[in-house]
Write a structure and sequence with these properties.
The complex is a heterotrimer of chains A (161), B (757) and C (294). With 161 residues, chain A is α+β, with helices and mostly antiparallel strands. Chain A is built from five helices and five strands. Chain A has two domains: 75 residues, Ubiquitin-like (UB roll), CATH 3.10.20.30; 70 residues, [2Fe-2S]-binding domain (DNA polymerase, domain 1, Orthogonal Bundle). Chain B is an alpha+beta fold. Classes of the chains: A alpha+beta (161), B alpha+beta (757), C alpha+beta (294).
Amino acid sequence: MPTKVRVSATINREPVDFLCEPRQSLLEVLRDVQKLTGTKEGCNNGNCGACSVILNGRLVNACIVLGVEAEGAVLETIEGVMGSNGLHPLQTAFLENAALQCGICTPGFIMAAKALLERNPRATEGEIRHWCAGNLCRCTGYDKIVRAILDAGQRLEVRPS
Amino acid sequence: MSMTTETTTQYRVIGTRPVRHDGVDKVTGRAAYGADIQLPGMLYGKILRSPHAHARIKAIRTAKALALDGVKAVVTTADLPDPRGKSANLGELGEVPLEDLSRNVLASGKVFYQGHAVAAVAASSAHLAEEALDLIEVDYEVLPPVLDVLQAMRPDAVLLHEDLHTSEFGKKSNEPSNIASHQTFQRGDIQKGFAAADLVLEREYRSATVHQGYIEPHAATALWNEDGQVTLWCCTQGAFTMRTSVHQILGIPVSKLKVIPTEIGGGFGGKIPAYGEPVAALLSHKAKRPVKVVMDRTEVFLGTGPTSGSYVKLKMGVTRGGRIVAAQAMLAYEAGGFPGSIVGAGGLCLLAPYNVENYSIEMYDVVVNKPKTAAYRAPGAPNSEFATEAMIDEFCEQLKMDPLEFRLKNAAKEGDPQANGVLYPRIGCIETLEAARNSSHYRSPLAAPHRGRGVASGYWMNAGLTSSVVARLNSDGTVTLGEGSPDIGGTRTSVAMQLAESLGIRAEDVLPSVLDTESVGYTEVTGGSRVTFATGYAAYEAGQSLRRQLIEQVGKMWKVEPDQVSFSEGVFCDRKDSGRTIDLAEVAGTLAHRGVDIGARITVTPQKVGGAFGTHIVDVEVDPETGKVTILRYTAVQDVGKAIHPSYVEGQMQGGVVQGIGWALNEEYVYNDEGKMLNASFLDYRMPTSLDLPMIETIIVEVPNPGHPYGVRGAGEVPIVPPLAAVANAIARAVSVRLYELPMSPSRVVKAIQART
Amino acid sequence: MRAFDYSAPQTLNDAIALLAKKGERARVLSGGTDLIVQVREKRRELDLMVDVKRIPELLEIRFDAAGLTLGASVPCHRIYEDPVIRRAYPGLVDAAFLIGGIQIQNRASLGGNVCNASPAADSTPALIVHHATCVIAGVDGRRELPVEQFCLAPGRNALGRGELLVSFHIPAPPPRFSASYIRFIPRNEMDIAVVGCGVSLSLAEDLQTVTSARLALGAVAPTPLLVAEAAVALVGQPLSAQTIDKAAAAAQAASRPISDMRGTAEYRRHLVGVLARRTVQKAFERAKEAVHAN
């Protein structure tokens, strides 16, 4: 039986402790150990962004981070985006702009967009497209996603969440 | 986004853009997709797949795998009932030999493609299950693979199935063949037609195997209970079709199987067939615990159903005035390891936007050592219509005729015959072309070196078939609406909107959900662009029924005849006494209090399906040194009959366009000589990213379909059809090279440019 | 995945000891964007991953008179977000900005990219044209190796048992020096380079005459190529269409591309010519604007 390692981290502002084998990715830990299934597996090799989470303030693909590498880390997942005031402006913007069809890529895009808008709420269409090139969507053709992120940027400038 | 419409009715709900009812769950990560299902005691299943494209299975030894600590079950084809001689009825997909279905799920005797499932294990973790797969020993006798459709058709080709004979003209050929079927569509006299032509062109067009590319891999969880009841949670496009497939493959009564469709992360046709579902059930049966089988991305490429690679030979003749007078085509589509490519649909759509009086279309369904194909958004049509739309552009260049004018001269209209002889009902082909011609995109100048504008049209017939809903009035006046159609793109809302409009309430007051096979009537797959049309029709009928029942009840309350009661904007009025009103919430509360149940169970099979036409315009820039093609501007024009929720109609158009662009420029299965796929990952199977595209403009045209109460035509599929030729035509206008093989990757563009000079 | 052990040493000596003990059965874990995928896909077998991201020296960015010391595990985003690196080494920023997408760049490092020794790595040609050296530490102490000697074959680097790459040393840019790295991919991001080209130039005070140059290619040979003949074609005279053509031809002649699913040999060789021209031009424009960075 492979040895498990004890890891302490903060996930969505809550301290957590978990056991995992070194071979379990952060994505597996989130989904199977922590039961946070909002982060999705699309390709398991860093090419689709469906598993995007924010690790120590940086957007990463959870499928190519080991669970054990999260020791001491501060993690944000889609489950933590909504605040005590309700939906985050990004979430509202995605809904109002119909920026999702099947919705499987949506958590990853929201995490990516959150990371972008937190450093640059005035991101232009070109900057958004470049930033999100690591997030694949097969349903929307990206048009409404980009519009939603532009919309959210404006909302955040008016009322940072 | 703009619209031209023939709709005259003022709707209250139809045409608005409410937030979708399942939206909050999807933006917060709460929605449960296929792989999110977790059950107590659940095991993880993994499938062992053939490394060879074509081989005989001599032996499978599973003892070592079973002996691994943590492994609870191993299954092979030996665990499935004998499928020989039986036929599986798959609804819209027709009758297929059960053997083909069963043996695609778990190979028996032979493997027909790299990735073909051979065995499966269930273990206490996915990692353990993977380790167990390494312990299964399979002895293969490797056979030469057949990898090209024309090679496969040769009389001396290596045969995949020794018992496959060509079906043609209602008979089977004497000799076995890789050609599973041969069909023909004919009209008029092509000899006479070509004799009258001033200009004749003949070309060969090729397209590679491409995948639907849904971001969510297949996932199925099964619980085979000790009482014989099997429950299956899966991200399927059709719970009932899945139930039909799986109960037949497993050989259990249909009543013993309940299929619960989870949320689904994309399908485009690829999540209709059964793959891991029967396997999960078998593993659960043996392990006596629930088992979840989730594919990884490599398995999705190798072990599911991409669409057909194809060869299309097309000859057309036109007059100097721009009329198509004859067409002759040969379509050969790769079915993959088992028969059943959708070459027939390809033939049906080949000339569909045009009224051509003389043609002959031969269609061949051919098996090759590649994954068994499945439907992919307007299946068969992109391959064939690419040829027609590209050749028309060559005619336009030679005749110096505007490409939209040419198409208008030949455009199909109501009363013209389709290839299957059925006459077109009211259609919007001409209106779509006119809207394209009037668009700001088409009228804008485009001048710069290496830039070009391409135009192409497309058609898809759409499906009707059977759909069901179950509606119930709640005590507060809202309506709970259970739908039989899995929701891949927002349809639970567009269906709910139709009930709301029909009954006379707000979209927000309908509570839609997607139900399982025990809770709602039979519903055909979410595919064929049919849900907003057919399930919407059912919702409309439900709304009408609720309306009638409510009016009757209010009549009883007021002691008047039902026709004296009117209902509008949530309020009932006495036509003879305008002071007497009562609102829906109050009525609902009163009825609930009295134990009066107001509900409707509706199943419909609407017959008058509206086909869809699209015309697209694209501007590209080509880097002649590298061959890289950049999409500068794209406009999709499409007749949708009636846009119930315009945002989601626009979304379908944009999504189809981008899949078409990927198909046109970069996507293909790359095989080596042994039939092994070299690019089975999103790294090298290159789908467009957000950085590869501009915004996609949409122009919605509404020529209502008389066969639907709100005029709906299916909208989801046709947008993937025009991009292939539109992009090819734009490249041709940009750098004066015609490409006849997809994808038009940078190296092919450079090669064509070098050959030109 | 096959099971493996994980260790996160806090000192260089501890890391060296672990690597020396396990040899081929251990591998340094930096960003993990290549390694984890390789192990998952069974392209690499190991018993131990040694996570070096807690060793301060591997994460430092340090400038002095001699130049830049760049820790091997510094993630790409810190490279392109650093204002001094952006000003002084735009050619390195080119490469760091091209590796994968944002998610990858927040983890992947140039050290990992170079040690992975893919023929198509984006960072290696860029580092080579900056005259970068690899600073290696092992049981026998430290040594330095020019980057162009570090990759031996596809997937094989010059590290011995118990050695790891600690940092890169990039000399301070002389006045009127700059560099550029350009690669060709079929999409606009997320692809492996079909061909990559790095060029550095130093100009005389006339801002025309090339006093030194380097040109390096990726994805056209088993290892990244430093093409000396291309530099010869450029150095000692004003940059002109003729010298650029000669350099491009030299680059093409030195290329030994294979045909694989990412491109045919013919197409790659063609692209070498195209990219060499474009990269030389870009490096030239940058060199004309370059301010000496301290």
